[in-house]
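B., you asked whether I could sanity-check this one before it goes into the benchmark set. Here's the sequence:
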Amino acid sequence: MRLNQRKLYPMSLYLLPSLVTAFTGGMEPTGTPIQSVFDPSLPITMQATLHGEDGRTWTLDLYRHSVRAGNYRVLEQQRDGSYIEVEPGPVNTYRGILTGQPETRVVAGVVGDQLVGGFEDEDGRWWIEEDDLGGQVLRHESEVEPCKGTCGVDDLPIFSDEELQDGFEEIPDLPSGFLGGLLDECELACDMDYEFYQDYGGNSESKINSDINNVNGFNYEPEVNVTHTITTIIVRSNASDPYNTTNAGGLLDQVRSHWIGSQQSVQRDLVQMFSGRNLDGGTIGVAYLDAICSTNIGYGLCETGFSTSCQTDLISHELGHNWGCNHIDDGNTMNSSLTCSNTFSTNSRNTIQTTAATSNCIGTAVPDAGACCFNSGFCTDLDESGCEGSGGFFFGLGEDCPADQGTCEIPEPEGSCCFPSGTCSVVEVSDCANGGGEFRGVDSTCAGVDCLAGACCFGTDACTSTNEVQCNAAGGSFQNTGSACATVDCIPSTGACCIDGTCAQLDEALCLAVAGTFGGSGVDCGSVSCEQPCPEDLDNNGAVDFNDILSLLAAWGPCGTCDEDINDNGSVDFADLLVMLAAFGDC
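And here's what the prediction gave me:
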């Protein structure tokens, strides 16, 4: 075991005076003006669309991706200097892909009424940024306006070796093969000054969440397998914050002193401070070097208000110093002048990965994780394949386990169910069965479902699915509710049909059409007797005789509907008597 013994060199990033105009409209505008359309309710998954002024459209498939630690909280400073814990805002950060392009990557957040972040496709990286008039533009990485500057050692005194040791944990030697499938997790506490709050107001929390999501998603996770999760954000909504200087080094010293003296209970591996001040001398960032896992020097700060690409690169740069990276003038993120490249050099990547592997305070996080529930009731964060491969139920990306991890329940599958009444509802499988319904499949919906539909045959070579009323109206032959054209035989089944004393093998529809009597499907004529009907035999004794004549005479006159009215004209009269006399004798 060994102790880290490191000299403290605060690293400051200066903005060249000649380039300040880049932030005040002194350069020609670049990029494509866009309008973003998204669901402001911040659902777990959503589609966002970017409409370019040039007619191009980009559609983003997004899922909620939190950068918050499990113990995430928001503290608000009061005028008397005390702090109260306030309800965190909704998770506003997302990851995803461009619709239909699984090889792409989207990192985005919602700040106020705007979608910010960017995406990568086969043409490179694109940034969603704000223009000088408050509108939005989409800039390709080749169009990004660099915020060039220089970085030097601050005039703050260098700490002694004994002071450096204070606050560091013992760390092991570097293991082999330390870069694995999980992410190395650094817990980050975030602070702000009152000027930052004045700039962003009620969006201050979401702005910081979005910035860290960009830093993780574009730089640290894909390049060095490291993610930063936020444990605490301190919101300073009034002027009584503990910071009163615009000197970058002096401000960093105040941040360090305040957190050592007043915020020791806040869990963190690093503190990043966001400043809305115009820092002296063009300085836009400063951080202590090689400061991971130290509550003594684990601090950095950056000025804010820059474009998405440059703000992301600046925060990544200052955190890079905390991770142990020195400047390398190769045009990448740790360049001594800010290039907004958002790319680490090989040397910087190796430094960060080594620091992550040899620092005991660094934990692990699962990328693209969500709540995974097991039959035992245990819940943990896993990715979808890991959850389902372990026999768990995956609730979805970004979903959190319940506070009591022993109470999760695996929900029963749901889908559309057709009930006997003909109605359709999306219910659990057991509820469908208990209601005597027909379950139409897991995750199926009732959209377009006709629960009374079945196969409707038209002759022997045409079939469609519709309900019985519509089938009959169209001249079809309805097969049964719930039947399918793929399984029914539209060739009609024939049976014995008696017509005027003779028998023919016909299908039921044709038999009835010729006023025949259908004996049933599959019934052969050899098994039925088609006797000629004898309506004049009123007493059904097999012969027309005097008893039948007497019955007819007894019913003489109007009768409506009666057996004696043989010709069905509504009255028993001479016409009926003549018919009976003509049939006198055995039937």
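One thing to flag: The chain has five domains: 29-142+185-365, 366-411, 416-443, 494-527, 543-586. Otherwise nothing jumped out at me.
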